């Protein structure tokens, strides 16, 4: 299976967005109001919710595949003294209700984000996304450039399946994406937890983040995760990079001890972001996929630089 192949290759494992995850959170919920900034009209969505903290220039934080907004808590706590921080939680992940069956996830979530920016009256907010959240940020900037001031993409590629080689296309990735989605739907719960615990080692050096990652995955809706992995593996935003005017900073991880070797990471990110005008590519050493947890001080410095440039 593809998952075994990925676990055998640290770089792919470290970037596979916690590929073998899911345990249905179960139950359905009606659309819930999002916490919009004071004075803004209420925004209703069953695609995401937003927690708002602090005051100042607006920053939107988008978590990755299966993750809770809590992955951004340390960043939000630090920024809220000087910024108004919008912590996004995607439906279907980490206990957030999923009511869309086997319908699409990624594109409707991006449209909901654009709707939130407009409804909340945000003016060119900075958007920081990790993993699938970074892909969502790129999609938001491409489809709604008026809604985004700048993007920081944290350890994500504009086409995830490029990890498997420059010859891969969305069409050739489709059978593997379908296989990945099907595995999520049929996997035994006990095997799922074991796989998550094993996979978490390749995704983060930080033990607390590894443990949280497993629990978020187990609290996520199985169908939502199957849909998301299929979409992430077959979504390619590279054709639209050349037309982007939104400033983009792309952070990527390198770890000589069990993660992505520096030279391999450099070559991959340089190749995949080559057509994006003015992109800032910054490698963060001593880190696996969860850069914000593995190198928190360096990550904080880079976020501050990104927000003040």
UniProtKB/TrEMBL annotation:
Pfam family, one: Abhydrolase_6
SUPFAM superfamilies (UniProt xref): alpha/beta-Hydrolases (SSF53474)
Keywords: Signal
Gene3D superfamilies linked: alpha/beta hydrolase (3.40.50.1820)
Source organism superkingdom: Bacteria
Lyase listed as a keyword: no
InterPro entries: AB_hydrolase_1, AB_hydrolase_fold, Carboxylesterase_BioH
Domain AB hydrolase-1 positions: 59-301
Leader peptide range in chain numbering: 1-31
Protein name per the record: Pimeloyl-ACP methyl ester carboxylesterase
Species the sequence originates in: Brevundimonas mediterranea
Lineage, broadest ranks: Bacteria, Pseudomonadati, Pseudomonadota, Alphaproteobacteria, Caulobacterales
């Amino acid at each position: 299976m593809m998952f075994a192949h990925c676990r055998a290759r640290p770089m792919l494992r470290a970037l596979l967005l916690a590929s073998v995850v899911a345990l249905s959170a179960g139950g359905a919920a009606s659309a819930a109001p999002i916490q919009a900034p004071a004075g803004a009209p209420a925004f209703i969505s069953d695609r995401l919710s937003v927690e708002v903290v602090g005051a100042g220039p607006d920053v939107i934080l988008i978590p990755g595949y299966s993750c809770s907004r809590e992955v951004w808590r340390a960043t939000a706590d630090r920024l809220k003294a000087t910024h108004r921080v919008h912590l996004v939680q995607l439906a279907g992940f980490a206990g957030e209700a999923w009511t869309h069956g086997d319908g699409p996830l990624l594109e409707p979530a991006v449209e909901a984000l654009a709707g939130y920016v407009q409804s909340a009256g945000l003016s060119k907010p900075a958007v920081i996304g990790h993993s699938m959240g970074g892909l969502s940020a790129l999609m938001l900037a491409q489809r709604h450039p008026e809604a985004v001031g700048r993007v920081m993409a944290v350890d994500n590629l504009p086409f995830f399946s490029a990890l498997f080689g420059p010859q891969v296309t969305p069409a050739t990735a489709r059978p593997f994406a379908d296989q990945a989605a099907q595995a999520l739907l049929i996997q035994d719960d006990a095997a799922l937890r074991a796989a998550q615990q094993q996979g978490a080692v390749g995704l983060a050096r930080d033990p607390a983040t590894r443990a949280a990652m497993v629990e978020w995955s187990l609290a996520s809706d199985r169908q939502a995760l199957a849909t998301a992995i299929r979409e992430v593996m077959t979504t390619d935003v590279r054709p639209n990079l050349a037309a982007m005017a939104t400033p983009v900073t792309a952070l990527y991880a390198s770890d000589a001890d069990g993660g992505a070797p520096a030279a391999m990471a450099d070559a991959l990110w340089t190749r995949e972001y080559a057509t994006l005008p003015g992109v800032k590519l910054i490698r963060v050493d001593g880190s696996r996929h969860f850069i914000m947890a593995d190198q928190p001080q360096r990550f904080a410095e880079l976020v501050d630089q990104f927000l003040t440039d």
